[in-house]
């Protein structure tokens, strides 16, 4: 749905040049929620703005649907931009216009007939849950409600793609989750392709299918969210995973001081019911175990978990248990 090929953007301000993004290749599939995570200054906003050519790439091509946007003239580009909605961290609403008029704005630009426009605005207000707020001004709304207006406005012309630039970064955690669940609902209901950028792993874990990690203007890692989360390879990805709350817990060294046998780390993803499997595997050997630490959680819809257990048995028993768990599709490793 979105394809970036060798996209680079260099800013020149006076004698200073900044290579904001370099050689970006990525493909966002139709209907997925694709996240880009990176620290401040990594090039996220530049990357996102290159997708609808708010920023024209210095080199490379940007294909949305089957159209190479970098080859279009101004007028054609305007037409194609209607198929791409965008929402922003600070909402960018017109402060002197009501909620209805903010949402109607892109419909007016598209010269939508009056009656149709009114019906569409009503429909959008319902879609984002702003019934009863249509005649208010942005200053009378909470942050979450403002972003709902931003979303309704972005969806007005029925785009195929929605771009989100730190859409929840100005919101408190609870409001963040309500906006994320709205975006997920819209993605599922309308089949809308969403590309979002964020510096929060929480956002990625909650709604994204795949993620790219960007650092210094380059993509350093890309994959299914659950794989990147469970096996981050780059230093930046490791940092983001570590910051994300559930990776915390007692440190390995303190667990190590508690153990009586060997420490075994077991991970699973998907529907494997790992406790019975572990129990069976240990029972076969005559060893025993106790659980020192465990988390079971959900990434978007996929359950995943990690257990650290203290296994008391011979070295051979432990090897057999590990082998058995591997056969059942679980990851298991003895911690040194
Ligand atoms: N309009 C601009 N002019 C000059 N430099 C810019 C401009 N926009 C961004 N930059 C620079 O490009 C780099 C990437 O910025 P940006 O894409 O905003 O990163 P992020 O969104 O990840 O914080 C930064 O070094 C920033 O200072
Ligand atoms: Mg930014």
UniProtKB/TrEMBL annotation:
Entry GO MF terms: ATP binding
CDD domains: ABC_MetN_methionine_transporter
Domain ABC transporter: 2-241
SUPFAM superfamilies, sorted: ACT-like (SSF55021), P-loop containing nucleoside triphosphate hydrolases (SSF52540)
Keywords: Amino-acid transport, ATP-binding, Cell membrane, Membrane, Nucleotide-binding, Translocase, Transport
Domain of life: Bacteria
Pfam families, A to Z: ABC_tran, NIL
Record protein name field: ATP-binding cassette domain-containing protein
The organism's taxonomic lineage, starting at the top: Bacteria, Bacillati, Bacillota, Bacilli, Bacillales
């Amino acid at each position: 749905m979105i394809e970036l090929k060798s996209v680079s953007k260099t800013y020149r301000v006076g004698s200073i040049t900044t290579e904001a993004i370099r050689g970006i290749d990525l493909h966002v599939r139709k209907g997925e929620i694709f996240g880009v995570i990176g620290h401040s200054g990594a090039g996220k906003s530049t990357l996102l703005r290159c997708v609808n050519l708010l920023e024209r790439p210095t080199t490379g091509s940007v294909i949305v649907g089957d159209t190479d946007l970098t080859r279009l003239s101004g007028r054609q580009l305007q037409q194609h931009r209607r198929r791409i909605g965008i929402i922003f961290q600070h909402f960018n609403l017109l402060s002197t216009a009501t909620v209805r008029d903010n949402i109607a704005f892109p419909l007016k630009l598209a010269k939508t007939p009056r009656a149709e426009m009114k019906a569409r605005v009503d429909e959008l207000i319902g879609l984002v849950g702003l019934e009863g707020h249509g005649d208010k001004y942005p200053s009378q709304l909470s942050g979450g409600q403002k972003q709902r207006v931003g979303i309704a406005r972005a969806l007005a012309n029925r785009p195929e793609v929605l771009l989100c630039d730190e859409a929840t970064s100005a919101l408190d955690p609870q409001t963040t989750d309500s906006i994320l669940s709205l975006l997920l609902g819209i993605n599922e209901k309308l089949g809308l392709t969403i590309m979002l950028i964020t510096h929060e792993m929480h956002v990625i874990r909650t709604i994204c299918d795949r993620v790219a990690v960007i650092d210094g203007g380059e993509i350093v890692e890309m994959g299914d969210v659950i794989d990147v989360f469970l096996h981050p390879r780059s230093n930046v990805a490791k940092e983001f995973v570590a910051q994300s709350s559930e990776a915390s817990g007692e440190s390995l060294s303190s667990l190590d001081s508690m153990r009586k046998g060997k420490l075994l780390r077991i991970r699973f993803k998907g529907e494997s019911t790992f406790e019975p499997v572990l129990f069976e595997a240990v029972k076969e050997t005559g060893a025993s175990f106790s659980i020192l630490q465990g988390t079971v959680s959900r990434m978007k819809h996929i359950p995943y978990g990690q257990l650290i257990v203290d296994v008391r048995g011979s070295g051979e028993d432990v090897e057999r248990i590990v082998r058995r768990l591997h056969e059942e599709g679980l990851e298991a490793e003895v911690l040194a």
